[in-house]
Design brief:
Distance between the termini: 76 Å
Number of strands: 4
Strand order of the largest sheet: 3-2-1-4
Structural class: mainly alpha
Helix content: 55-70%
Shape: elongated
Number of domains: 2
Order of helices and strands: HHHHHHHHHEEEHEHH
């Protein structure tokens, strides 16, 4: 078995590990939160849509009852009545079904975002392993779920009993009520019970969601070795990265060498260091470095300077200072202005140029 399987997973999951877990359908999601949202928002929707649904239901019943005496099962008018009643029934139930579906989809999107993972539908034969099944049965997760469900059952029973108990005094009035008032009273009682139970379940669901997030974060933790291997897969092996850096240095060096023929002067050490300077009065307030190098690179800079008749001046202190303080493209620092200005004045005098 690989050594990494024995390493403790103490590190937070990387973004790549999280994306892989998401593709496999492994997300932090609480089914209790779904149930609580459907109960609370569903009954609120019924409260809002209830009067309209009740009116349409009454119209449907009146329509069916009014036409029932004039049709027979064998009569063609029965099919017409059946189709008409069916369409009206669909008009009644479809709004509440649509609201319930939107609530169910919305609460899942709020929890995990919108993502479709086909891998969740793949059969997992490891769930048929009895050893793993027993391990899951006696795990901390199973214990939490057992405690959660027990608490939920007790809370639902207690809240339902207390709400009904508070209405005991009105139960004896129900036989004397009209059908409309009785339906209204029972509807209010049902809504009160459902909302109070829903609020309690919502509190339990929030705790369950926090626990599911904790378990999810724990399940996707990584060992230090796994992070190293992922970094290696992402950025490549050390040999590959070294080769990439080498290629980048070579490309930068070639670009630098092409700028040497544009220099005004090359300052040398005389053999160890070479720094090429250029002064563009219209673009820069001071001279800047177009190329620098030591040893073989310095030798190549001198060779290119000779090929293009670029003046080469030996000045050990200035060459060392420029090489140390400046990168390619940097303007000469203020403390070297005087020395560089004197150097350029000397070069321009040799070339019969005038400094403006």
């Amino acid at each position: 078995m690989p050594e990494r399987d024995f390493q403790e997973r103490t590190e937070q999951a990387t973004p790549r590990r999280r994306r892989r877990a998401r593709r496999e359908g492994q997300v932090a999601r609480s089914l209790e939160l779904n149930a609580a949202a459907i109960i609370c928002l569903g009954f609120l929707s019924l409260y809002v849509l209830g009067p309209g649904l009740a009116g349409k239901t009454a119209e449907l019943m009146r329509y069916v009852m009014a036409n029932a005496a004039f049709v027979a099962i064998s009569d063609k008018s029965f099919l017409s009545l059946f189709n008409e009643a069916g369409m009206r029934f669909l008009q009644i139930v479809l709004p509440i079904f649509a609201v319930m579906m939107l609530i169910a989809i919305g609460i899942n999107v709020v929890q995990v975002g919108f993502d479709i993972s086909p891998k969740v539908l793949n059969p997992r034969f490891d769930k048929l392993d009895p050893v793993k099944g027993l391990r899951r049965l006696f795990s901390g997760r199973s214990l939490f779920m057992a405690v959660r469900d027990t608490v939920k059952l007790l809370v639902v029973g207690f809240v339902g009993y207390k709400v009904i108990q508070s209405e005991f005094k009105d139960f004896f009035l129900y036989p004397d009520m009209s059908i409309g008032r009785l339906a209204s009273s029972l509807g209010s009682l049902t809504l009160s019970i459902a909302l109070k139970i829903g609020v309690c379940i919502l509190a339990i669901a929030i705790i369950d969601y926090l626990y599911q997030r904790f378990e999810f974060e724990k399940s996707i933790r990584m060992s230090k070795q796994e992070i190293k291997e992922e970094l290696k897969d992402t950025e490549g092996s050390p040999q590959m990265k070294s080769r990439i850096r080498q290629i980048q240095r070579e490309m930068s060096r070639r670009r630098m060498m092409t700028a040497v023929p544009t220099a005004d002067v090359v300052v040398t050490n005389p053999t160890e260091i070479a720094v090429a300077l250029k002064y563009e009065r219209d673009r820069h307030s001071a001279p800047f470095v177009v190329a620098k190098g030591e040893r073989l690179i310095a030798q190549r800079i001198r060779e290119i300077a000779v090929e293009h008749d670029i003046p080469i001046v030996e000045d050990k202190p200035l060459a060392r200072s420029l090489f140390k303080l400046c990168d390619i493209g940097d303007i000469v620092p203020e403390q070297l202005y005087r020395a560089v200005a004197e150097l350029l004045a000397y070069v321009y005098r040799l070339q019969d140029k005038v400094i403006s």
